[in-house]
UniProtKB/TrEMBL annotation:
<dbReference type="GO" id="GO:0016985">
    <property type="term" value="F:mannan endo-1,4-beta-mannosidase activity"/>
</dbReference>
<dbReference type="InterPro" id="IPR006311">
    <property type="entry name" value="TAT_signal"/>
</dbReference>
<dbReference type="InterPro" id="IPR000805">
    <property type="entry name" value="Glyco_hydro_26"/>
</dbReference>
<keyword id="KW-0326">Glycosidase</keyword>
<dbReference type="Pfam" id="PF02156">
    <property type="entry name" value="Glyco_hydro_26"/>
</dbReference>
<comment type="similarity">
    <text>Belongs to the glycosyl hydrolase 26 family.</text>
</comment>
<dbReference type="GO" id="GO:0006080">
    <property type="term" value="P:substituted mannan metabolic process"/>
</dbReference>
<feature type="domain" description="GH26">
    <location>
        <begin position="9"/>
        <end position="317"/>
    </location>
</feature>
<dbReference type="InterPro" id="IPR017853">
    <property type="entry name" value="GH"/>
</dbReference>
<dbReference type="InterPro" id="IPR022790">
    <property type="entry name" value="GH26_dom"/>
</dbReference>
<feature type="active site" description="Nucleophile">
    <location>
        <position position="252"/>
    </location>
</feature>
<feature type="active site" description="Proton donor">
    <location>
        <position position="148"/>
    </location>
</feature>
<keyword id="KW-0378">Hydrolase</keyword>
<protein>
    <recommendedName>
        <fullName>GH26 domain-containing protein</fullName>
    </recommendedName>
</protein>
Length: 321
């Protein structure tokens, strides 16, 4: 999502894992096919065939994260399996996330910077600090670094870096190497473009930014129904391109209403789409009523019908990861 949408939100905010204190969700993938088979897809956060993790970014007006988690627990009768947080590029590298339950995977969307600041080596100490802090949390973490790189609204996108996606790839690989050298084996790497490119030109196609299979554990995608797009329209291009090689996480998604009674049908379409798309292993709802500068409300409980549809989705077997 664009900077203006995150402004004010973001700042308020496998085998090696067996030696760590890891919540059950990280190890449950080893039940079928052995630990090595489970770790082969998804890295430190294993992909489980037929089971999608369901979680959210939670920022509800007047509530702390702990209070927001409790509200959703009461409404849905279940816990969040992913809790999504936003970290700035520098100046904030937490030692722990005490409000995030031990049973949940922490998904961190970590800001980037210009490609040159990374590829030159000037940011190596900052990268190593974050690697050490995340490793020290001793929990499975999905790291979504520099998302929506095929847009034109972030400092790390191609439009702000000379229209040269290769710089993004070199940056990603350098960060990946530093995390490996610092022993951050609990981090699963999530590469996550926007569902469509802006500008929509050949050099800015999402595939031009892909760091390579050896550097990516999950492929993510951001997509909202701002213009009444269906889940299939939003997510099928990414699924078609990578779903046979990598598990897919719908890393940022939600529905806004387009008139009375329109949010629930979209949620039902999302549920159906995930059920018929086996490569989708996680869905992360952007659950907030705080989008700056607009009247958009992403909450799944904005009306009773929407909440009922979301509850049915959350309680279905497909979303029991």
């Amino acid at each position: 999502m664009e900077n203006e949408q995150h402004d004010g939100l973001a700042r308020r905010r496998v085998l090696s894992l067996l030696t760590l204190t890891v919540p059950a969700v990280a190890l449950s993938g080893a039940v079928s096919g052995g630990a090595e088979a489970a770790a082969a897809r998804g890295g430190a956060v294993p992909f489980r065939k037929g089971k999608a993790l369901l979680g959210s970014y939670l920022s509800l007006r007047g509530r702390t994260l702990t209070e927001s988690l409790a509200l959703r627990r009461r409404q849905l009768g279940r816990e969040q399996r992913i809790v999504h947080r936003y970290y700035p590029w520098s100046g904030y590298a937490p030692l722990a996330e005490p409000e995030v339950p031990a049973s949940a995977v922490l998904m961190v969307s970590w800001d980037g910077t210009t490609h040159k600041r990374i590829t030159s080596g000037r940011s190596d100490k900052n990268i190593a600090l974050m690697a050490n802090r995340l490793a020290g949390m001793k929990r499975p973490i999905m790291l979504r670094w520099a998302w929506e790189m095929n847009g034109n609204w972030f400092a790390w996108d191609g439009a702000h870096n000379g229209k040269k996606p290769a710089g993004y790839i070199r940056s990603w690989r350098r960060i990946h190497r530093i995390f490996r050298d610092e022993g951050a084996a609990n981090v699963a790497w999530v590469w996550a473009p926007n569902w469509n490119s802006g500008p929509d030109v050949s050099w800015n196609r999402f595939e031009n930014y892909y760091p390579g299979d050896d550097y990516v554990d999950w492929v993510g995608v951001s997509g909202y129904n701002f213009s009444k797009e269906s889940p299939r329209t939003l997510f099928s291009p990414i699924v078609s391109a990578y779903g046979k090689r990598k598990p897919i996480v719908l890393a940022e998604t939600a529905a806004i209403g387009h008139g009375r009674g329109t949010k629930a049908p979209w949620i039902r379409k999302l549920s159906a789409y995930v059920k018929e798309t086996p490569s989708v292993g996680a869905v992360v709802w952007f659950d907030t009523d705080r989008q700056k500068g607009t009247s958009r409300n992403f909450r799944p409980d904005s009306d009773a019908e929407a909440l009922a549809a979301y509850r049915r989705m959350a309680r279905s077997a497909r979303f029991s990861g």
